[in-house]
From TrEMBL:
Keywords: Metal-binding, mRNA processing, mRNA splicing, Nucleus, Spliceosome, Zinc, Zinc-finger. The lineage of its organism: Eukaryota, Metazoa, Chordata, Craniata, Vertebrata. The keyword Metal-binding applies. Residues 153-198 form the Sodium channel modifier 1 acidic C-terminal domain. It is found in: Nucleus speckle; Nucleus, Nucleoplasm. It comes from Periophthalmus magnuspinnatus. The keyword Protein transport does not apply. Residues 44-69 form the Sodium channel modifier 1 zinc-finger domain. This is Sodium channel modifier 1.
């Protein structure tokens, strides 16, 4: 459920933005996977077609979808490849600078040779580490992490569903964890207490 703003009060706009950021954080959505657009809607940064959503609830439903999970694997695979490419290029530039410094100072050839051998031994452990092996053979950390992560418990699922129901019904949570009625929302009934968590 989305609510339209009345007027152009800047402080009210800032309050709405803060509330939407709090919604994102409360649903455990990483900042690099979703963002808030200038019009107040949410967009998924993982999916290549860039879907746009009105509410966090819709974004949460999208994140559980098959298409998004496939995009998530691609997203983290590209991220890992980029990280490995950066390490590789830094290492290559380090090797070139070492070779240039060795040519300039050949006063201690045994020390330079030992340093070079040590560096190459460390290089092999970096390049041929587990990430490099997994990426070469088509596996990624994301796939392994998704398989190893335990499924969410039934109690946790119920808590998250209850939280989403309360948020979409117009209840807000204060810092102490108590649920309060949102002043900007019109309620159908005169209930003073939010519905309790079903057992």
């Amino acid at each position: 459920m989305s609510f339209k703003r009345e007027g152009d009060d800047r402080s009210q706009l800032n309050v709405l933005k803060k509330r939407r950021v709090a919604d994102l954080l409360s649903n455990y959505i990483p900042e690099d996977e979703a963002t808030i657009m200038s019009n107040g809607r949410y967009t998924c940064l993982v999916c290549s077609y860039g879907p746009v959503f009105d509410t966090v609830d819709m974004l949460t439903v999208h994140r559980n979808g098959k298409r998004h999970l496939e995009g998530l694997k691609r997203f983290y695979r590209k991220k890992a490849q980029l990280r490995n490419e950066i390490v590789k290029r830094k290492h290559e530039s380090y090797i070139q600078s070492e070779e240039n410094s060795q040519e300039a100072s050949s006063s201690a050839p045994l020390l330079a040779q030992t340093r070079k051998l040590t560096h190459h031994a460390l290089l092999r452990t970096i390049i041929f580490g587990s990430n490099f092996f997994l990426l070469c053979f088509g596996f990624s950390d994301v796939e392994l992490h998704l398989e190893e992560s335990p499924p969410m418990s039934e109690q946790r699922k119920k808590e998250l569903e209850h939280y989403l129901k309360l948020k979409s019904a117009g209840w807000i949570q204060d810092r102490s964890g108590q649920w309060l009625k949102d002043d900007n929302v019109e309620f159908d009934s005169d209930e003073e207490e939010p519905p309790s968590l079903p057992t």
